[in-house]
Amino acid sequence: MIHVDLSRCTGCRRCEVACAFFHTGKVSNRLARIKVLNLYERGIDGPVVCIQCEEKYCLNCPEDALTLGSREQVIVSPTVCTLCGACEKACPIGAIEIFDGIVFVCDLCGGSPKCVAACTEGAITHVKVADKRESLAEIKKSTKKMSPSQRRRYYLEWQGMALREKWSRKHA
Amino acid sequence: MLEFGYGGRILRADLTKKEFRIDPLDSSWIKSVIGGRAANSKRLFEELNADCGPLGPENILIFGVGPLTGSLLTASAYYTVTAKSPLTGILGDSAAGGQFAAEMKLTGFDQIIITGKSERLLYLLVTDSGVEFVDCPEYKGRKIIETTDAIRREQGDSSIQVAAIGPAGENVVSFASIVSSGNRVNGRTGMGAVMGSKNLKALAVRGSCPVKLAEPLAFLSENQKIDQEILNHPEYKKRNKLGTTMLMKDLNSIGILPTRHFQEGICDYVDEISGQKLASTFKVKNKSCFNCNVHCSRYYLADNLEAEGPEFETLCGFTSRIGNQSLPFALEMNAYLNQMGMDSISTSEVIGWIMECQEKGLIHPDDLDGLSITWGEKEKIRQVVDMIALRQGIGNELANGTKRFAERFGEEARKLVMHVKGLDIICGDPRGIKAYGLTYAIASRGADHLRAEPYFELTNRKEEARKRFGNEKAADRLAEEGKAALVSYSEKIALLTDSLTMCKNIGLCMDILNFERASSLLKAGTGFDYSPEYLEEILEGAIHLDHQFNRRLGMSKKDDTLPERFQKEPLTRGPTKGSTVNIQKMVDEYYKIHKWEE
Known about the structure:
The complex is a heterodimer of chains A (172) and B (598).
Chain A: E1 2-4, H1 14-24, E2 35-39, E3 44-48, E4 66-68, E5 74-76, H2 86-90, E6 97-99, E7 102-104, H3 114-118, E8 124-126, H4 137-143, H5 148-171
Antiparallel strand pairs in A: 1-8, 2-3, 4-5, 6-7
Chain B: E1 9-14, E2 19-24, H1 27-31, H2 36-47, E3 61-64, E4 79-84, E5 91-96, H3 100-106, E6 109-115, E7 122-127, E8 130-135, H4 144-155, E9 161-164, H5 167-170, E10 178-180, E11 184-186, H6 191-197, E12 200-205, H7 216-232, H8 236-242, H9 247-253, H10 270-273, H11 275-281, E13 283-287, E14 297-302, E15 305-308, H12 312-317, H13 327-340, H14 344-359, H15 378-389, H16 395-398, H17 402-406, H18 411-415, E16 419-420, E17 423-424, H19 434-442, H20 462-469, H21 483-500, H22 504-509, H23 515-526, H24 532-552, H25 564-568, H26 583-594
Parallel strand pairs in B: 1-6, 7-12
Antiparallel strand pairs in B: 1-2, 3-4, 3-6, 4-5, 7-8, 9-10, 9-12, 10-11, 13-14, 14-15, 16-17
């Protein structure tokens, strides 16, 4: 899975650029499977990407178009998928989003993620699937009515709180 | 057809009628200027009634990006804002990095051209399909990040990027800035005042038109070379750690760090206010512009405040230039000016000038509503800055710019204004960097280093200097020989970086960009055959056009000069001791190279 160290993220979005470019040959955050937000009011920058959560909410697909790969990455079958949007609605952190008829979710680039290679600050690493996966049950409750974009913001703000506490301690 | 690189469309918004129009971008028109700053200038010259008042509805405010902005190109993060300047009355423009440019590019508009004046305060929401005019009288008085956050929440999308003005822009302070990405500033020439005069609080952008390249693999291969060159560059680590704040100690070590308003070039307490001190004491992480691998910016926490920055200009402007020894105070001023939306260079010049004039007895407190201020007086500096931003008391007049304010005083006081063409000089004493001196003198927006950024003269690369400019002295900072050739070369590369909308620290200072490389990037990016020779030719044309435009607005060769101090008064100690600038001679040579008349 992709692991993010927020304390090292500078908000440059090279991960997003690399993701979009190597999947589509074009650049746009809409075409990226890892999406960076820059929250200026908090000084927090960071990418939001599939964390292979414990619950795997997205797999509850009415068409069974989503399956897990050998690295637990989500695989979407474009022939089975009807673009119903259930997975997008299910993901509590906005890590799946449909744009222009395609479901955008991290596929780990077949095992060698381009975003990891693009990050020169060491903020993104590719780690083996953890024994204990992060649960998004609490986040899910809070983000129910939100759009994917708002969910990403909520999740990043939540993650950012710990970093801000670390900064305050260091500064004090 | 503009299928690749360019967005291919321009957007015109009339604030008076609240109407907009989408036009195709003419391919032969844009090919003659590439994009970015040069395209903005051309648009302004073609469409502006040159005699119009800069703060009237007739002035045209242009936001522009280039063919490679927001693309795979490393550090392609800049956008330029252009209009007639309310500070100088001539060509005004200012660029900023951050995230705004890349998002603007995704709207598919290469230029957003704003005219007219709204009756009520509003912001524009620009998406692929055009503009929404959103009234926002409740935003009055709001600072930058507050405004950004409010728009994002209102629209329910945190990927929206916002370029806004703060209270200073609303109050039409002639050197008000536009700020995007929270703390990235279009600082110079008062573009924020032009926005304020139109009652335009912010321009918000969110797009979904991807940036397409003509030959993605060829582009990728060239960009990988660029990435490697940057990572292997001898300055990489230092720039990554300190960014432009590295210049505090670097300029001090060669005796050109403006101290007490350019009276000295060495600051004895530089270690207390240096980039190194900032990095070890207050910095909590690196920050970056879009798609950059240098990550030279910083986020800091200090005494109940936090912000991104400061860049060197702000740090020096609010420490040695005005005799302040407190780093936390400079950090406070950086955050405050960015959030109020006011240029730190012009603000520190007006303060430093008053301090020197009062020290010399040239200005009496009675001339300033009783204000008496000397070096490093923090509380009074806070007051003055606030009075300017809010146009209160004497601040209402200081807000018109140092040069204009000084007109009421005697010749001695007027001579001490450190400006060229009404634009306040940056932090770098030209007596020890002669090519920079020439750049300040000839720059088409007034005293400015970024029009050429002849960093080369600080590199001591004598052999390379002989090859490139026919004179090894071009690489000797104290020499005047070879500098006109250096400046005429690097002003083309500077315009090239502005047209590709790349960062100048990378394109120029780190010497990453040249005509050959730009040619292959543009070819792979746009599909147009931009040969190196053709690029050089159109850049020369664009520089000439700037010059002609300012001529039309009353400038002449005698305005291409430097304040008398730099020509006659030598610095008294350090490695630049005894040096002055023979500006006339360098300007003459520069005119000769350009084949310009007197």
